[in-house]
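Quality-control log, excerpt.
Job 1 of 2 completed; input and output follow.
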Amino acid sequence: VAETVKAREHFAKGVKIPAVPRELLEPMTMRLAEMQLQTGEFQSAARSYNKFLREFRESQWKRNAQFGAAYAMERGGNSKRAIDHYRPLIDDRHKVDLWMVRSRYQLGECHFNLRQYEKALEYFVYVEVNYRRYPAWQAKSVLEMGRVLIAQGKRAEGQEHLKSVVKRFPKEQAAVVAGQLLDKLRRGRR
């Protein structure tokens, strides 16, 4: 963590140097935003990512920055605003990439945070069904479906989804989390 804070401080100073060549300013601005996100400065990270998107419209890292801005907003507690920033990343004109998959998943998370359970389920189901090349995200989506169902009071159905994660995705971290949730449910806690 100390190295990340130090890096963040260096990048923050670097982007303020007058007349920095554009080819250096671009990666420095991106790294600043990433370091702000990693150190929990979510509002600053969102501002830096959005500045990057305004100033480097043709960047090879445009999708990274778009996702970063949305994720920073979500982590900063503004799921509603994050939704609008994730949406451009799920546009079907792009090839399926990690940003598309993660954005659909995070859209589910945002709707879950807003207690819009049916909408959250739509996104999680979409990830599970359509992104077989991304088993970690499929597993996380099935796990989240279970959590949504439990939040809706459909405990038995939710538990079945959690069991499905453990059975279908035993090598994924989501299987460990699903197992822990099942243990808590068995002991009568949520």
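Job 2 of 2 completed; input and output follow.
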Amino acid sequence: RREAAAVRRELDRLLRNWDVGAGQEPSPRLDSRALVREIAARSVRLSRCRREEQERALALILCDVSGSCSAVAPATLAACLAIAEARDDVVIVEHSNGWPEALYGATVRVPATATSTGDDCRHPWWDAVLRLRLSGVVALGDWDAGDVYQQIAALAPLVWLDSYAAKHGPRPASRILRTQAAGWARQPLSWWQGVSDARSCALALRAVKVT
């Protein structure tokens, strides 16, 4: 329980930093030049500008509960759910190697095929989630869901807590591990490996610097 509380504190710190605008593009209302360009080019309607300004960005927390992540899943999922109860801007996705199993927190619309099987059902589900306005994403899981994390990293700051090589303890992802994501459009904001329990999860989250 103490370790889960530590994870909850560090997650909340990270989400608060994202909540004040870390990683966000200036909205048209705040960026007068962008607004003028949009009006001149007629690229968007003013109603859409107003709607996007009023919408609150959501934070995604992705918890892999597959067998390879079973050591960390119970405590971190409990901490994530506690965060979701306290905040209305967090979406928790419980998944197994990228296959969605449950959704908690803020209400979002996703296809009815979320619990279906087959590759043709997996990615449309994530596409719907990734169309949300995101402030940032925390992914707790290994490379088995790497294709999902690649999509996410291109859209929002991604903190990846990877359970790979847990026996060596938590540490920033090695250069060898990072070569697997060399072709990604955008690298994770923070990527730690060896995160296999609540203690190492809290340690890795504490090391994330968001300015």
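Post-run check on job 2. The beta strands are 58-64, 90-96, 99-105, 134-140, 158-161, 171-172, 190-193.
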